[in-house]
Amino acid sequence: MQVFITGGSGLIGSAVVGELLGNGHSVLALARSDASASALQEAGAAVVRGGLADLDVLRSGAAESDGVIHLAFSNDFSSPEALAAGVAEEGAALAVLGEALAGSGRPFVTVSGTPWVPGRPSTEADPLPLDGPVGGRGRSVMGVLGLAERGVRSAAVRMPRTVHNQGTGGFAGLLTQIARQTGVSGYPGDGTQRWPAVHALDAAVLFRLVLENAPAGTAWHAVDDEGDAVRDIAAVIGRRLGLPVEAVPEETYGPLGPIFATDQPSSSAHTRDALGWKPEHPNLLADLENLQA
User: Fold this and answer.
1) Cα–Cα distance, 262 to 122 (Å, whole number)
2) Which class for 119: exposed (0-12), middle (13-18), buried (19 or more C-beta within 10 A)?
3) pLDDT digits (tens, 9 = 90+) for 91-134
4) Which of 115, 170, 261, 289 is geometrically suited to a Cys-Cys bond with 162, CB 3.0 to 4.6 A?
5) Looking at residue 76, what is its pLDDT?
6) First-to-last CA distance in the chain?
7) 40: closest CA among 72, 63, 62?
């Protein structure tokens, strides 16, 4: 099938594009910049220029394709206002994509984070949070899943806190970036809080499986590591970069501070059983060994 994809040049998106092209699908990819367009074309995708705010472009891309995978997000976490603007932009884009697919029976796969549940790993049956810093994303995803009642084979792939490849990406990547800037490999609280993780290449396989096979209105977990202690993540980063490892104030991480400090392990048992998904690439702590000082 021809798949329209947003965010196809990012860490996850580039892996998804490669997975789709390698398994007989064609890709029409949204590209906001010349660099993104060039990378996507080199990978073998057709390109349409625009961003998430270009609603007519999104509508056209979805209308002429056999399915849609949405991955794009502003990723501006510099302030609560910037994060809220990114959430609002994504919500409008998802609404337009959904309208373009209504009544068609075509697949629409969107992305969210895994939920967190006090005292145990979250599962695919747990609801997404609808309040807090990213509650708007949860509401938008629920809207996409609700399109199952309007003739769309909608599904959500819930991503863990760190999606990594060659030691970069996700929350662990942000810890690395801040460590380089401050000279300290830090962690909030006592560091025993756990973050789930997955290799980008394994996540890409799951996106393809969901696109091809998932029933309408379903959610899936792209989780390999159920939960790595943040202190252990910071310890590998500190050792690889030659920096001290210390607890730092939650405020160090801006609007993401409360999320960084939360224990949020997650399970993918149902996803593996139902779709036959089997992660094969290095886990997070092993992949972080690729970091260079």
Assistant:
1) 13
2) exposed
3) 999 999 999 999 999 999 999 999 999 999 999 999 998 887 67
4) 170
5) 67
6) 43
7) 72
Q: Are 207 and 173 in contact (CB under 8 A)?
A: no
Name the amino acid, one letter, at 221.
Answer: H
191-194: long-range pairs with CB below 8 Å, 24+: 191/229, 191/230, 191/231, 191/232, 191/234, 191/247, 192/229, 192/230, 192/231, 192/263, 193/229, 193/230, 193/261, 193/262, 193/263, 193/264, 194/226, 194/227, 194/228, 194/229, 194/230, 194/263, 194/264, 194/265
DSSP state of 169: S
User: Look-up: residue for tokens 């977990």?
Assistant: 221
Q: How many helices (H) and strands (E) does the chain have?
A: 11, 12
What sign for the dihedral angle of Cα 42, 47, 52, 54? positive
- pLDDT tens-place string over residues 29-46: 999 999 999 999 999 999
Percent of the chain having pLDDT more than 70? 99
Q: What is the pLDDT of residues 66-87, one digit of tens each?
A: 999 999 987 766 787 877 888 8
| Model pTM score | 0.94
Instruction: Look at residue 130 and give its three-state secondary structure.
Output: coil
Q: Are strands 194-199 and 107-113 parallel, antiparallel or unpaired?
A: unpaired
Two tokens at 286? 């092993």
Q: What would the two tokens of residue 1 be?
A: 């099938």
Residues 56, 62, 63: CA angle, nearest 5 degrees: 85
User: What is the maximal distance between C-alpha atoms in the chain?
Assistant: 56
Q: Which amino acid is at 51?
A: G
pLDDT in tens, 195-219: 999 999 999 999 999 999 999 999 9
Helices 11-21 & 34-43, crossing angle to 10 degrees? 30
